[in-house]
């Protein structure tokens, strides 16, 4: 005969265990079903000695079990003891294989054949049993694992961690913690941001890196696994590293087959989608089944435990209970114009802002803990042009005006340029009518996009549409682009990989979203560099217009992203829009002229073309491929006067941002040590006070909030950032010239700075780098001070084209 209970709880993790404890305290007939021989399998499988965090810190714990930050072993010991003390009815080795029935009469069938009856079911099974697998060649080799039990078991190994969430970071730190183990530990992150991880974990990881205990590789993805080696795709191309063991911590997904067999539907077909739930944790498609914990989209332990407590209270008829985060959210909504409950506000924002549509009511609560919402009156400024800022805004009601030219309405977003590129605000935004806007911090926005495929698709679609409108112009509207944008695919391109090959068929258009491309043509059996295409350019229109084969090869100068647009859809757009066709033909004519020039010069001018091609490739290797502005010195003109360095120091508190002699030279062209102002600056990736910004003219600069941590210096691959103290103020040049006071022009010696330092005042070091003399009239001092014109600052696209040879340049 089947055992009968009022509540059956599936899974004894923090959520399920807390639910069982509440049921026990209320005297409710219950059973806690756990498929293993121990409680809380997820925590049990944490690595030994792991420090478990109790976040969010502002959230009150509501549970009959204790929980505070501490070691994994101590927490499990407390829960085992308290589970016994509260007389939780737990059944081990009880794996549920099917749930049937309806609210008030469920039947749970276990794998051992036994049957349990329950009026309500709480599903708290988590997702850790269904990890995302490494789906690359060699990903099924035996040295690839998805779990780390005891870091102390591994000695003298080259270990690579794949995954930049909390689990991956904690595994990496655990394996590198003890120097006596002599492990060489590397952690890979496919982006530059650790958006899924807690701040404390990220700081701990970089602390270990700075101490030389492990390596952190960003913008890197695994390509191929071999015994003893791992091939990686990095910003600079493909590389192969020693690797004895791979620990893949790339997240996990719900066991959908089992969950859907219970009648529970998901919000979408995406692997990372969550079940459809009400605000009270109940499945909207299988009433009577309640879902809590990680399976509901709440992975944090404190959230899970609060949900376990709350759901049992709800099942028991407590209609007045409010979630533990209610006071926090009430404070966020307090200043808004209309009187709504927290649940009503959450639903209003979720349904009205497109990037939030796929979030459940429960996920919305967590999301809003990291976001803000505010009402704006008509005409009120949201932000000004050139303001720093990388947050994303969603329009829940009303509309905003962009620089008096464009109106963006309810449901859409703005601020995505700062989010994606880190640039300052590109336009002034004001409320076009009374509006309610959600401001999402950069960290929260990246986390949302990483964990919610629907949100990522919306941001990608809108940013693509706006990039196309800005790039093509020609009076186009968003409606004109509907067919083309529906075909858009964002593709990652490894450094050196071609998106178009000379002589191939095909007519797709490629828009360069991130990174840069070089265009080459085969001349005499070898590739000749033609031109350079930065982000914001497009290529491929020649095959669309004339229907011929590809006339040149286009490959990534650095790791890049392109938007592939269907060529046939683009043809139809050109047919409907004659102004766009005229623009495309003009762009095509320029490329045809360039091809014709190279063909005409291939015999009489081949040596010069070869030399230019070699110089261009050298510059790309020196980081020009990701630069927005680069300082070059013509060694044929340079007389070594060092006026450029002296002028730089005199314009920047006595500290030069330039090392003229350092850097590499090819032929007569020298690339000194000076900031490239990269499109996606490496230095921005890990700045704790967010002191690094991009100015209105593309300059990357460091503000006065710099704390001197040195992360930017370590992250810069070009060695252009230094850490130093600001020297004492020097006497003026006239005083030096007439009376010999002070050290003279340029950067003072350390001896002078020490001798003239303010007594008793120890100035801290801070990061020093070129800011392109932002705010200084006349532009970069290094260029202005050069007496021979040897020093020039250029945008790569204005310099890197073989067409310069036609004018006797290069």
- Uncertain spans: 802-810
Q: Report helical residue fraction.
A: 25-40%
What is the count of helical runs? Answer: 24
Radius of gyration: 30 Å
Number of strands: 41
Average pLDDT: 86
Sketch the major β-sheet: 7 strands, mixed
Strand content: 15-25%
- Report the end-to-end length measured between terminal Cα atoms: 90 Å
As for the number of domains, it is 5
What would you call the shape?
globular
Structural class: alpha+beta
What does this 3D model show about the protein?
This protein has 810 residues and is α+β, with helices and mostly antiparallel strands. It folds into five domains: 3-128 and 253-315, FAD/NAD(P)-binding domain (3-Layer(bba) Sandwich), CATH 3.50.50.60; 144-248, FAD/NAD(P)-binding domain; 329-457, Jelly Rolls, CATH 2.60.120; 481-602, Jelly Rolls (Sandwich); 614-807, no CATH class. It is built from 24 helices and 41 strands. Strands 1, 2, 5, 6, 7, 8 and 17 form a seven-stranded mixed β-sheet that branches. It has a five-stranded parallel β-sheet with strand order 9-16-10-11-12. α1 (14-26) links the parallel β1 (3-10) and β2 (30-33). α12 (442-451) crosses α13 (453-472) and α16 (567-576) crosses α17 (578-601). It is globular and about 100 Å long. The relative contact order is 0.07.
């Amino acid at each position: 005969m089947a055992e009968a209970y009022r509540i059956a709880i599936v899974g004894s993790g923090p959520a399920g265990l807390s639910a069982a404890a509440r049921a026990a305290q209320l005297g409710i007939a219950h059973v806690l079903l756990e498929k293993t021989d121990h409680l809380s399998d997820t925590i049990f499988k944490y690595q030994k000695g792991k420090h478990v965090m109790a976040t969010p810190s502002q959230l009150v714990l509501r549970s009959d079990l204790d929980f505070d930050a501490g070691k994994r072993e101590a927490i499990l010991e407390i829960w085992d003891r308290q589970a016994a003390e509260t007389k939780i009815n737990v059944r081990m080795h009880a794996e549920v294989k099917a749930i049937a029935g309806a609210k008030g009469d469920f039947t749970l069938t276990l794998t051992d054949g036994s049957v349990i009856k329950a009026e309500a079911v709480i599903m708290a099974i988590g997702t850790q049993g269904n990890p995302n697998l490494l789906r690359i060649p060699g990903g099924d080799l035996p040295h690839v694992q998805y779990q780390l039990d005891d870091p102390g078991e591994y000695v003298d190994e080259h270990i690579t961690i794949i995954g930049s969430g909390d689990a991956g970071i904690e595994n990496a730190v655990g394996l590198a913690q003890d120097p006596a183990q002599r492990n060489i530990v590397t952690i890979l992150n496919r982006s530059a941001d650790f958006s899924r991880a807690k701040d404390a974990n990220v700081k701990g990881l970089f602390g270990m890196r700075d101490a030389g205990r492990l390596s952190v590789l960003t913008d890197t993805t695994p390509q191929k696994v071999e015994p003893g080696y791992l091939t990686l795709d990095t910003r600079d191309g493909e590389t192969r590293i020693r690797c004895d063991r791979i620990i893949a911590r790339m997240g996990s997904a719900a066991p959908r087959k089992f969950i859907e067999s219970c009648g529970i539907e998901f919000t979408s077909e995406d692997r990372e989608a969550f079940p459809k739930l009400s605000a009270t944790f109940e499945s909207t498609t299988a009433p009577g089944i309640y879902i809590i914990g990680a399976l509901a989209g709440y992975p944090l332990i404190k959230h899970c435990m609060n949900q376990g407590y709350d759901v049992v209270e709800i099942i028991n008829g407590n209609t007045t209970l409010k979630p533990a985060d209610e006071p926090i959210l009430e404070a966020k909504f307090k200043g808004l114009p209309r009187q709504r409950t927290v649940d009503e506000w959450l639903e209003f924002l979720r349904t009205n802002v497109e990037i939030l549509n796929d979030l459940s009511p429960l996920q919305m609560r967590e999301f809003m803990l990291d976001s803000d919402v505010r009402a704006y009156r008509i005409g009120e400024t949201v932000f000004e042009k050139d303001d720093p800022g990388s947050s994303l805004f969603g329009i829940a009601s009303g509309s905003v005006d962009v620089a008096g030219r464009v109106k963006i309405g309810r449901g859409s977003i703005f601020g995505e340029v700062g989010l994606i590129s880190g640039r300052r605000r590109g336009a002034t935004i004001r409320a076009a009518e009374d509006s309610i806007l959600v401001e999402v911090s950069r960290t929260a926005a990246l986390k949302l996009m990483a964990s919610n495929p629907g949100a990522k698709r919306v941001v990608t679609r809108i940013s693509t549409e706006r990039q196309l409108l800005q790039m093509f112009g020609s009076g186009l509207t968003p409606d004109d682009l509907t067919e083309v944008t529906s075909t858009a695919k964002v593709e990652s391109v490894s450094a050196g990989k071609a998106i178009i090959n000379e002589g191939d068929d095909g007519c797709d258009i490629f828009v360069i979203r991130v990174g840069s491309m070089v265009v080459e043509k085969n001349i005499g059996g070898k590739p000749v560099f033609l031109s350079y295409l930065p982000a914001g350019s497009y290529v491929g229109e020649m095959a669309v217009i004339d229907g011929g084969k590809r006339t040149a090869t286009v490959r990534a100068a650095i790791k890049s992203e392109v938007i592939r647009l269907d060529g046939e859809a683009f043809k139809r757009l050109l047919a409907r829009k004659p102004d766009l066709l005229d623009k495309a033909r003009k762009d095509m004519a320029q490329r045809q002229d360039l091809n014709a020039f190279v063909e005409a010069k291939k015999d009489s001018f081949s040596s010069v073309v070869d030399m230019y091609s070699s110089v261009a490739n050298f510059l790309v290797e020196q980081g020009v491929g990701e630069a927005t502005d680069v300082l070059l010195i013509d060694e044929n003109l340079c007389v070594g006067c060092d006026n450029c360095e002296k002028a730089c120091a005199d314009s920047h508190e006595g500290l030069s941002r330039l090392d003229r002699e350092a850097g590499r030279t090819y032929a007569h062209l020298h690339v000194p040590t000076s900031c490239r102002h990269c499109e996606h600056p490496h230095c921005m990736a890990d700045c704790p006070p967010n002191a690094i910004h991009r100015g209105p003219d593309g300059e990357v600069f460091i503000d006065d909030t710099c704390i001197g941590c040195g992360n930017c210096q370590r992250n810069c691959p070009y060695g252009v950032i230094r850490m130093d103290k600001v020297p004492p103020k020097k006497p003026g040049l006239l005083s030096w010239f007439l009376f010999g006071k002070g050290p003279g022009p340029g950067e003072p010696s350390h001896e002078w700075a020490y001798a003239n330092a303010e007594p008793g005042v120890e100035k801290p070091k801070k990061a020093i780098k070129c800011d392109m003399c932002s705010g200084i009239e006349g532009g970069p001092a290094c260029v202005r001070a050069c007496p021979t014109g040897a020093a020039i600052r250029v945008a790569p696209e204005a310099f890197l084209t073989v067409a310069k040879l036609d004018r006797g340049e290069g």
